[in-house]
Write a structure and sequence with these properties.
By secondary structure, the protein is an alpha/beta fold. It has 11 helices and 12 strands. It has an 8-stranded mixed β-sheet, with helices on both faces. The protein has a two-stranded antiparallel sheet with strand order 7-8.
Length: 427
């Protein structure tokens, strides 16, 4: 059953179209963060006659951004670009944001120290917005003031590493954080986390009795249902948090017993205890494509189409494997996908960025990020002395119509982004 949005049929919609400017260099980059974990990407450098003392770092917690749509126009303007994957590229099962920002730190250090570029701007697209913002906020703090523990209770490395802050921040189609996105689209009608077929009909947004009008039609949910639905979503997230903490706690308890049993147990008994201590449980989060905004446009009106970013049929896609946070370790659930526990949110970090310029670009036709729920609150969070807000009649990745060979919305966006960069950081 093919349910994925047609936008994705011809490749990832965030990949640039066409050719790069002549004379550019594309240098494969393999970086090692200060915790010795590796990341890789491509360093795009403009031709020497164009080259500015500016570079952009574009990253996402898990998405492959090495051909991101921002790259051609940056090169044309003489701006270098490092398109870097994190250690969790294309698989965020073990994505701990408190570790992922060490990969951002490695990217900034590469540009400033290895490439000797003095001005570095973070391009936070979609989930890259919360990642870039979290890094910048932590890098601006003294080491002892940084986050000391992950939501799972593990000690972070942030107080022991060097983090050189960037010089500017661009947020494009950024949401408030992956956990907060998931909290809005997780299905609260799931009855049993181990059985995705069991449903509480009274909380099923795709049930006609609750206001669902059918595929492609505008549904209408009562205020009472919306309130009850949103509370049930929060309750499910909290239950999953508790499950994750119990899984982590159980493994730590067995690990401690294993360490304490040295010399007191036989080989087989100690081996069995060690297995329990080494066990890394996996959480499967079923049905995470159930945001009321997908089918009821009146709840947060915008020019968007029906459905979600990933599918025009979220009612069925909700049952498939593709979606937000579907498979992860409990530590990753708490750090990345829990709207209650995650540190990776604009709410926590964006207001602390004061002295570096911030640009916010919102795509009005976005099917996952909405004006009242996301765009307006994000803009209100920006406390930077130099701040700019732009909105565009565009989709989430500013992608063109299906099959088009040019991307006019990308061109419109970059026609604002490039001058914004040059005016603030150009020589």
């Amino acid at each position: 059953m093919l349910l994925i949005s047609k936008t994705y049929w011809m490749g990832m919609p965030f990949n640039f179209l066409g050719e790069l400017p002549d004379g550019n260099e594309q240098i494969p980059v393999f970086l090692k963060a200060q915790d010795m974990r590796e990341s890789s990407g491509i360093f795009y450098r403009p031709s020497p006659e164009k080259r500015q003392d500016i570079a952009v770092l574009v990253m996402h917690p898990k998405v492959e951004f090495r051909r991101h749509y921002c790259i051609p126009d940056l090169l044309e303007a003489g701006i270098s670009c490092l398109a870097l994957n994190t250690r969790c590229a294309n698989n965020d099962m073990a994505a701990i944001h408190e570790d992922l920002i060490l990969d951002v730190a490695a990217g900034v250090s590469y540009l400033k120290e290895d490439q000797k570029i003095s001005q570095v701007v973070l391009f936070g697209n979609s989930g890259g917005g919360a990642l870039s913002t979290m890094f910048q906020a932590q890098a601006l703090l003294q080491p002892e003031q940084r986050i000391q523990n992950t939501p799972a209770g593990d000690s972070t490395k942030l107080a022991r590493v060097q983090m050189v802050p960037a010089d500017g921040l661009i947020l494009v189609s950024a949401h408030r954080g992956e956990g907060l996105v998931l909290q809005e689209c997780i299905d609260p009608s799931v009855v049993d986390e181990l059985d995705p077929t069991l449903t509480d009909d009274s909380l099923d947004m795709y049930h006609p009795d609750n206001g669902y009008a059918g595929p492609g039609k505008a549904s209408s949910y009562s205020a009472e249902f919306v309130q009850r639905y949103r509370q049930a979503q929060l309750d499910r997230v909290k239950r999953l948090d508790q499950m994750a903490l119990e899984m982590v706690g159980e493994s730590r308890e067995h690990e401690a017993k294993y360490e304490a049993s040295k010399g007191s147990l036989g080989l087989r008994e100690r081996q069995l205890l060690g297995r329990l201590g080494a066990l890394e449980r996996i959480m499967v989060i079923y049905r995470t494509m159930a945001n009321l905004h997908y089918t009821d446009p009146s709840l947060d009106p915008s020019p968007r189409g029906m459905g979600s970013l990933l599918s025009e049929r979220p009612d069925l896609m909700n049952m498939q494997s593709l979606g937000f946070g579907r498979v992860c370790r409990p530590e990753a659930w708490l750090s990345t996908w829990s709207g209650v526990s995650s540190n990776a949110s604009l709410d926590k970090h964006l207001p602390t960025i004061i002295d570096q310029p911030v640009m916010v670009a919102y795509a009005e036709k976005d099917k996952e990020i909405y004006p009242k729920a996301d765009a307006e609150p994000i803009w209100q969070m920006v406390k930077a002395k130099d701040k700019v807000y732009k909105s565009y009649l565009a989709e989430h990745y500013f992608e063109p119509e299906f099959g088009a060979k040019e991307a006019p919305d990308v061109a419109e966006l970059m026609a604002d982004v490039v001058p914004w960069i040059l005016e603030r950081f150009g020589g």
